Amino acid sequence: MLTVQHLTSGYGSAKILNGVNLDLGSKEVVAILGRNGVGKTTLLKTVMGIVATQSGTTELKGQNITKLPTHDIAKAGIGYVPQGRGIFDKLSVKENLRMGLRSRPDGSDEIPEYIYEKFPILLERSGQLAGTLSGGQKQQLAISRALCGDPKLLLLDEPSEGIQPNIVQEIGSFVRELVERRDISVLIVEQNLELIGLAADRFEIMVKGELVHRGLTSELNNEEMLKEYLSV
Ligand SMILES: Nc1ncnc2c1ncn2[C@@H]1O[C@H](COP(=O)(O)OP(=O)(O)OP(=O)(O)O)[C@@H](O)[C@H]1O
């Protein structure tokens, strides 16, 4: 599904990604873990074309998307939910969802039924300003907006940030549902081990802009490893 090879990128003269290699299969959920500031968000932004690739390649289902502008990467099939969610508070819930439809390759302007079935609050509050939603509801809206683009791959950046534990669980099981019922793969940057345990098949640990250690989610109970690589 996604193949990243020797990817480097950064901001001005600051090099942040130092040669990332990553393979994500179809119907797979992979979590990227690592301490603050190691480059996890930068990896998602580079895949998405928001931060320019300096060297290396990114392929989606065999298509080289490395140099494409962000809107074409979205159209090629990647949905992105940024850290902090990127919701437009001054637009209605429905208008936020409609923004996501712009990335649909088939040009459809219908919000997919399953989104409202899963999150009925988004239909109930359809005409309300998105800024009036709770943190958890905004996260549901942000994920739903990305799904409106009918992606094959979803990039989620810290979806658990600032939301209540019961919503964290709901999002974890929703991610699994997406993979199993909708054939979507997910790359998720996350610190919350409960959410990773619920959603991810395996993990990759980033240190100084490189993915240095990987394993199955079931191996995440190794305290020494967690101490070595993470701030827990
Ligand atoms: N727009 C920017 N301009 C300059 N430097 C940046 C910019 N965004 C991030 N950085 C720097 O790049 C490095 C990596 O940041 P990044 O956000 O990718 O880390 P992260 O692993 O996602 O951490 P966090 O969990 O804190 O978000 C940090 O040192 C950060 O200060």
UniProtKB/TrEMBL annotation:
<dbReference type="InterPro" id="IPR003439">
    <property type="entry name" value="ABC_transporter-like_ATP-bd"/>
</dbReference>
<comment type="similarity">
    <text>Belongs to the ABC transporter superfamily.</text>
</comment>
<dbReference type="GO" id="GO:0005524">
    <property type="term" value="F:ATP binding"/>
</dbReference>
<keyword id="KW-0547">Nucleotide-binding</keyword>
<keyword id="KW-0067">ATP-binding</keyword>
<dbReference type="InterPro" id="IPR027417">
    <property type="entry name" value="P-loop_NTPase"/>
</dbReference>
<dbReference type="Pfam" id="PF00005">
    <property type="entry name" value="ABC_tran"/>
</dbReference>
<keyword id="KW-0813">Transport</keyword>
<dbReference type="InterPro" id="IPR003593">
    <property type="entry name" value="AAA+_ATPase"/>
</dbReference>
<protein>
    <submittedName>
        <fullName>Urea ABC transporter ATP-binding subunit UrtE</fullName>
    </submittedName>
</protein>
<keyword id="KW-0029">Amino-acid transport</keyword>
<dbReference type="InterPro" id="IPR017780">
    <property type="entry name" value="ABC_transptr_urea_ATP-bd_UrtE"/>
</dbReference>
<feature type="domain" description="ABC transporter">
    <location>
        <begin position="2"/>
        <end position="232"/>
    </location>
</feature>
<dbReference type="InterPro" id="IPR052156">
    <property type="entry name" value="BCAA_Transport_ATP-bd_LivF"/>
</dbReference>
